[in-house]
Amino acid sequence: MAYALARPLAERGLAVAQLVLGVMHGGGHGVPRDDAEAAGWLQRAADQGCAEAQTILGVMHAKGRGVTQNDAKALRWFRRAADQDHAAAQSNLGLLYAEGRGVARNDAEAAKWFRRAADQGLVEAQTILGLMYVNGQGVAQSYLLAHMWLNLAAAQGEAGALADRDQPARMMTPAQIAEAQRLAQERTT
Predict the structure, then answer these.
(1) Cα pseudo-dihedral 117, 183, 150, 111, rounded to 10
(2) Per-residue pLDDT tens for 48-76?
């Protein structure tokens, strides 16, 4: 039913319908899974500026799913979506910089993109950014900020973040822990 409704709209160039068809084909939702077909529909939506399609297409290029694996293309799609404040794209862009995939490894640039995604509440980015603060990777080492970001991730149910938060807590005074908790609370209100 959804496919029958979306297909004519997608063929007429409606980006959201093209996104829907791409997701349906990519996940085998109501149609046989076909990654190449998914990539084609997502490409059309992405070319029109659809940040969600750009992000999914970036993942497909990073993994070589339905398209030839190409980190440079993944980087390009993630950046286009990240510039539209798409949190998942920002986090994926951070991963490419952290791993040096499609671009020279740059921990400071990775931290910048993880921070933008973390500021939007993306739990994975909050966790990674917290660990970067623990290790001083791409940022000045700060147990206080590490504790804050990991506390925010833990509050969203990220089980590993709670254990990770204990690492910087062992290096902090009770007053510093209280300050980190206050900062985390400010971000949630």
Answers:
(1) 40
(2) 999 999 999 999 999 999 999 999 999 99
The pTM of the whole model exceeds 0.90: yes
Distance CA 30, CA 88 (A): 25
Which parts of the chain register pLDDT below 50?
Answer: none
Q: How far apart are CA 71 and CA 64, in angstroms?
A: 9
Residue 90, both tokens: 């920002």
- Using alpha carbons, list the distances in angstroms from residue 62 to 23, 94, 162: 17, 13, 30
What are the tokens at 125? 């980015």
Q: How many residues does the chain have?
A: 189
What's the pLDDT score for residue 188? Answer: 86
What is the secondary structure of 131-181 as a DSSP string?
HHHHHTSSS---HHHHHHHHHHHHHTT-HHHHHHHHHHHTTS-HHHHHHHH
What is the per-residue pLDDT across 117-133, written as a single tens digit (0 to 9) for each? Answer: 999 999 999 999 999 99
How far apart, in whole angstroms, are the C-alpha atoms of residue 146 and residue 37?
42
Q: How would you class 167 by CB atoms within 10 Å of its CB: exposed for 0-12, middle for 13-18, buried for 19 or more?
A: middle
In terms of Cα–Cα distance, which of 48, 60, 132 is closest to 89?
60
